[in-house]
Amino acid sequence: MPPSKFEEALTRLETIVGQLEKGDLPLEESLKIFEEGVRLSKNCLKMLEEAERKVEILLQDKEGRKRPEPFRLDEANPEETHDPDDQD
């Protein structure tokens, strides 16, 4: 049974990628975990899409209209942005 929580699935997917990047697994085992990785990737994508739909519902106004707003990284984490043209 695949992991049901996003974090668990993502952790397993990262492990699979690491194993495949090493390149020391036999072909049959590589194919087996690659297939698992594809399933996990699709599962993660599905969970992210469901979360996105929930966020859209939360952003609806009183009349039920969506009022999506663009996510701006610089507003969320201003310390993580860096303007390459800015010469401090």
The span between the termini is 52 Å
What is the count of helical runs?
3
Beta-strand percentage range:
under 5%
Q: Please write the string of helix (H) and strand (E) elements.
A: HHH
- Helical percentage: 55-70%
Note poorly predicted spans.
Answer: none
What is the total tally of β strands?
0
CATH architecture: Orthogonal Bundle
Shape: elongated
Number of domains: 1
**CATH C-level class:** Mainly Alpha
Q: What radius of gyration results from the CA coordinates? A: 19 Å
Secondary-structure class? mainly alpha
In the CATH scheme, what's the topology name?
Helix Hairpins
Q: How much is the average pLDDT?
A: 80
For the report, how would you describe the main beta sheet? none
Task: Give a topology summary.
Elements lengths: L5 H17 L4 H32 L14 H4 L12
Key phrases:
mainly alpha, Helix Hairpins, 0% strand, elongated
Structural commentary:
The chain is mostly helical and 88 residues long. The chain has a single domain, classed as Helix Hairpins. It has three helices and no strands.
Provide a short characterization of the protein structure.
The protein has helices at residues 6-22, 27-58, 73-76. With 88 residues, the protein is mainly alpha-helical. α1 (6-22) packs antiparallel against α2 (27-58).
